[in-house]
Structures are given as structure tokens and as C-alpha cells.
User: Fold this.
Amino acid sequence: MSSRRYNVDEIKDLLTQERNIVQVLEALYNGDATYDRQTNTYRLADIRGGEGKSCQIKISGQYAGRFVDFNPSGSREKGSLIDAVMEVQGSDFIGAITWLGELLGASPRLQSVATPARREPSPTSQELAPVNPESHQRMQRALERCPEAIAYLQGRGLTSKTIMRFGLGIAQAYPPRAPMEEQVTGAIASPVVDRNGRFLSRIPKTTVPGFTTNPRDEKGWSTGSPLTYWNGPARGKTVLFVAEGMKDLWRLSQEIEGTSLDSRLAIITSTHGSGIPDEWRDSEFWKQWDAVYLGQDNDAAGERMAQKIREYAFRDIRRIEVPRAKGKDWTDFFQNGGSLEDFEELIETAPSLGLRLPEPSPNRPLEEDDDGTYEIERININGAFVGGYMYYPFRVRETRTESQWVTEADGTRHKQALKVHARLTQVVRSDGIVLTPREMPAPAGTPDDSRIVALEDGTIVSAVPNPEDYSTWRYRSIRQYIDNVQSGRPPHRPLDEIVDDLVAYLKTLTWLPYESDYALLAGYVLMSYVFNAFDAIPMILINGEKGSGKSTTAEGLADLSYNGHVLGAGSEKAMIRFVDQARGLVVLDDLEKVGRRNGSDVSEFSDVNQMLKVSYNKATGVKTVVDKHGNNQRLMFYGPKIITNISGLDPVNESRTYTVYCRPMPAEVAASGQITGLNREISHELRQEMHAWGMCNALAANTAYRKRMASLGDRAKQIAAPLEVIAELSEHVGFASALKDALDRQTAKRTDDVTPMELVRLASEEIVLRGARHFITAEQLRCELALMPESMLLRDGISVPEDLAVLKDTRWLGKALMALDIRKTNASSRRRLYGVYNRWYDLNPKFVAEVLESRREADDAPAAAYPGDDTRHALAYCENTTCNLCPYASVCTAVMPEVRAAKRQSDPQAGR
Assistant:
């Protein structure tokens, strides 16, 4: 191995560049890592190698050069390419940096790369003078002559080498002038070891049972304020382990000495048992470590100490406990047969603090960031799905005793201990970890709207949530969920059993003319609990005449769904605020203005209508509004929605919606008594269990969804995907079959009054909103039509109505554009797009102005105009974007395959 040294920061910077990442992967895995174009990642079976897909390595973006392994039995959950090199080659940090430096041609540096630069301890910690060598030697010689103390230490499994390593001795009798019967004698002396491995003059004492006289404590004691006791030099080590006492620290250090674990693991403890050293109270002390493990005893006192440290550290911390069969502390563990291999396995599988599940948050606590500027993404934490985890906020009442000033009747003031109470917002993560939103320290003078609110795992939230008015997961059920996760019990029944109960309840709630619609509604209810794991979801329209039971049905569905609530018709802003705050299923009851018609072919569009048109998609379901204080607020209205009305929907909203028909129930059904209506006792129990199911299965739903989306095309298939995922996860053959029947029936139906001319107008409007201002092409028009399921442009093997067949005819499209006054003149010609002719037409400025004005009235800005005003403008929809960012990526190959192939050949980067 070369002895040259490289600059760590330079290596890390090189590993953020795509070409360098690919070079490292090719050299490291020799072909095992395969490129996935859809996700722009390299995949392999395990970070140590092997062909597979569970381990993903990003090559671009914010997490370029980092890997995540979704296989819980993988070698390592996540990390950087430096970690990958260490795993594959079995090297230490220095070896990995050296290998990477030589591979990437980095410039050698004189400085050591034993570890990235570490901050010195907090300046508030007092540096003590080194121990007096002569006094120390006297104590060590006294121990050599004390068989009782030697036997005690050896009885705890310590070797002579370990005793010498930590400089143990026998403390001198004290007070020196006190009568002998009052002196403390025979206590083991252990000089404090600082982070540089030096012995200090502070000397804690350990009681030898039956030998030490007049001990200050039956176990041990130390004078002065608590200090950090290290197991040796910390330089070059990246992982911190906190033991409960010095005796455990000694034994742990002995067991790992000379191993690879010893090269990266620093062990510390407090000189005062449960006393907290000052430097531990500063988060700066903890943020310098790649990982922190709390190894306190597996009793109530140890848990309290661990919780206290976690509060000060404000970062994700792992809790590692001695298996109860092996004892209470780490000395017991090794004395009772525990091995180093067992300890390393406990390290690898240690859960986040207080819980027994693995997989801590992939986010990094903000305290770990170096100085600089970073991309920011603020999350609405209500029901958020981030980094593979679901989050759910809830409120608790906090009561504590606090000393406050009290004014008596005579005006005198004094401090008095009072019980104080406050509401506290907490957030439960899907792995059972409970987190607390906290406003992070900010530079002096930072305005309120620029301050950061974050959770301990580094997730930045848009604001501290106020969930009381909307939350449907009750505190008792949340506590039960956490307890089940902690104890290893399943938090919910198998999904197929939940599905059976859910469908059975729906059949007592309402009568539906189509039996398979019960499966459709059950799937939609379940989907509401994981909707943030999907990019786009359908809406449900419950359509029926007065007295058909549609409102009762919708109310019952709201009672079953994630944060479900019923909202009557109102203003767009009021509705959006409600959806943003509730972050769950919303029923828009009797919303007739969404579908009311004039008697003409054109719907009477409203603000609510426009909102619904884009709310099915997570990327477009966002709106910025101005609050009463003049501040901009970014509100999210993406989410599951159920609409009830009589008249139906306009064509665009209908393309994003599944319709369930309600009809007055037959007399024999009414007489049978099987329809009992709302039963909130049943719906409450189902809802609580589905909350637990959703928290546990959001990641599985997202994974299954991503696999489906990789091969899907038109919008109809995209909005069906979430419900198909629910059917897949249920492993319930009957439910999956009924749901498929319902979706097939929905896909096959087409509203009678959707004419080809109306579809051309709607597609042209969308093209203008995407940026076209002067010209339009028949090819872009067909791509836009292909995104509309009602056009049936991409139907294979299904008869297409004769009136829709004209949509594939370029000449007919040109005539339709002229008849609709979308074209300005009869001018038309062709231009080459990557060698393939596109037919262009000039746009009527009046039509463009009307489309843009309608969007402005809806307070929703269109996309920027395509560049230029000549006929080249017509081709900007393709030339000015890459294939992976193109809105027509899912249909382009079917509509104009020659263009896609030619673009990839002429410009591989754009054709990606």
C-alpha cells in the first residue's frame, strides 16, 4: 500500500462527480454494478458486490456517491463510496482514501488523512493537568502488592495487560491525618484518560467489595464535576460508544483491542456514573461522529441516562443493550459467554434509541453539516413519506414542575415550585421513533420566515404541525403501535384479513349496483393511508340521484380513511387550506359546480374545478397563496378526494376519476336489513388498524409502485397503479380479482359527450400552457392526446369508436384546428425534428391569449414560453428538454418512435 497521503476534502469532492463515481464502481465491482436508466442509479446485490438490485448507488443529484441497501440483511444499510471501498477491500479509512486517490489521480498532500478534521471538545470543558508520574507509579506498585484488588479485577475478566493499559492502582489512604478506622483505604484508583490518551490528575475510585474501607459509594466515586473518561486516543476514530461506567469501558476495550473495530470505535464514559459532563450537553460534541451508540445498562436507570444523552445530542442515536440472558452490563455479557462476534452483531443491528427496529432515518441531523450553503426542501410533515419513512404528528399534554415567580397579595414576590402544563407536538416515524419538531438556532436578526424547524433525524419541516383538529390516529393507538414495534409484535393483522373486514363493513354501509365497486372503494380507503408513497392517484366520484345514499356512502368512507373529513362546497382557498392542513382524504359533498353544464360542449369551469384538475398529481398539486399578513404560503392540495354530485364531471377531471354509481336500493335489499348504515364503532377500530398498516407498509407500497411505473404509459394506467399496488400487497386473490374487474369497467367506459373536437381543444390548451405561443405541431398534439385516456389514442386490441379514429389523421387535425379557430391561417409546412418531419401550424394569438387569461384568473401561472417566434418554435417541446424530463416521455415511443431513437443517437445526453 502506498504511503502517500491525500486530502480528504478533495477526494470527497471528486466523488460527487458522475464520471468519477462510475470509474470507482467499475474498478470496485468489475461489472457487478449495473446501470438503471430509470432511476439514474447503479444497482448490485450488496455493497460488497454481487449481481442484484437491492443496493442502489446514486450517481447524480444531492446524494451523488452515496448508497442505500433496502435488504435488511445487507452488509451495510447506507453510506458513501469511501465506506463502500472499506467494505469491499476490508481496509481502514486511510487505506480507502489512498486507493481512491491513486485511482482518481488526486494530488498527494503532506497532511495525514487518518480522519476528516474533527472539532476540538467544547471550550467549556476544563483541561486537567497530567497525573504526577511518581504518585501514579506508587499507586500502581501498591496494586501489585494487593492480591484482594487484583483478584477483584481479574474476577471481572480483566487481564494484567488491561490493568497496566489503564494505569490502575490503589489509592493512598485518606484523609491522611484521620484515625485509621475513619480512613478510606483499599480503593482502586484509575486516573482519568483524556481524548489524547493521557492520564490526568483527576483520579476516580472503585470500591472493592469486602476490602475497601469506608467507601464513599458501594460501587465507586469521583470528586469534582463529571468528566469524560476515554479508552485511549480518539484521533482517527469515527464511531463513538458510550458505556455506563469505567469497569465496562475497560472490559470492552480489552475485547476489541487489536481488531478492526478498535481502529474506528472510541469508547467513553462519565467519571460520575449518571452525572453528565458539561461537554456532553453541547450538540457539537456529538455531531463530529459518523455514528453514536449508547451502551448503558439494560435497566431503568440506564434507559433514563440514554434518553438524557439523546436530548442533548439532538441527532439520530443508536441504542445497544446487553441481551438480558447475558446480564445487565457489558462485563456480565462477556463473563456469561458473549463473544466479540456477538458484540459486533449487536453493533450492526442496533436500533434507533429506545426501539428494537433497525433502519434509522436516512436523513442526517443538521448539526453534522459543515459550514456552507445547502439545498433546502421543507416538508409538510403531516403524513409525509420521506426517505422510506412515514411520519405522523400528534399532540400530547406535557406536565412538569417548574420554579416560577409568584406575587402575593401584599406585593411580595418569591419563587415557588408549580406544576405547569402545555401542549406539545410530537411526530411518530414509521419505525416507531418519536421525534420532536424544534426551531434550530439561527444567526442573530434572522426573520421568522427564514428560520429552520427540524426533527432530530434532520428532516426539515415547513412548520410545527397543529394536528389536533384533523388527526384520526388516536394517541392510545399510537402508543400501542410503538409498544408493538418495540416488543417485536406485529402492529397489525395480515392485510387480507383487514380487507375482508373492510369490504364486509362497506356492504352493510351502502348498496351498490356493481359488486366489484366494493373492492374499488376498499382499495381506495387503504390507498389513502399510503398515498404519499405515490406520485399520482385517482379521485373517486360517487354519482347518483337525490336519495340514492351517495352522501351517506361518502361520509362512511371519510370515517374509514386516513384523516378523512367531509367538506361542503366553498371557496377554492378555503378548500386548499383544509386539504393542506388535514393532509388526508377529503370528501367534497354535493359539489355540483364541478360538473354542471351549460347545455353546450364546454364545461362551466370554476376555481375548484381548476384545482381538482391538477390535484391528482403530487408535482402539480401545490399552490402558493398570500396569508392575511402578506406572507407567501406554499400549500399542498395533492391527496385522495371523493366527490359526490348528480351531474357528473367535465372530461378532464373525469379522466382522473373513477366513478361509483349510487342508486336507490331494491325493495328486497331494504327489507333484508343487511344495509345498517354508519357504524362508527366498527369504522373507528378499522381506521386505527389501517393507520398502523400504512405506517408499516408505505415503503413496500412505494417500492412496488416504482416497479410498475417503470413500464407504464398513459395517464389511465398511471392512476390505476396505486390501487393495483394495494391489491398486490394484500395477497388476497378474490379482492385483487374484484378490483381488477372494477378498474377494467372504469377504463372501458367513455362519456358520450366527449367529442374529438373537444379533445383537440383541451389538448391545444394544455400545449399553450406548456409554453407554445406561436406554433403547434400535429406530433405534439398527438402526444398530448395520448396522455388523455378518453382519446383512446394508444388503445391496442380494443375497438376504438369510429369518431375517435380521426385523431390519428394529421389532415383531420389540421382541419379541426382551423374549425376551432386555434390556427391563425392556412399556413402549414414541415420541419425536421432529429431528422423526422413534424407538421406545424401557426397559432391564433386570440386563442393563446384566452387560454393564458383563464389560467391567470385561476391564479395559476403557466409555464414559460418556448424560445423564439419562428417555425423552430414549434419544435421546442422536444428540442429544449431531455427525454427524462419530458412530459411526453411515457407516450413518445408509441406516438413517434423514430424521433425518440434519432434523438438518442444524435444527442445521447438529451436522449437519456
The two ends are 39 Å apart (CA to CA).
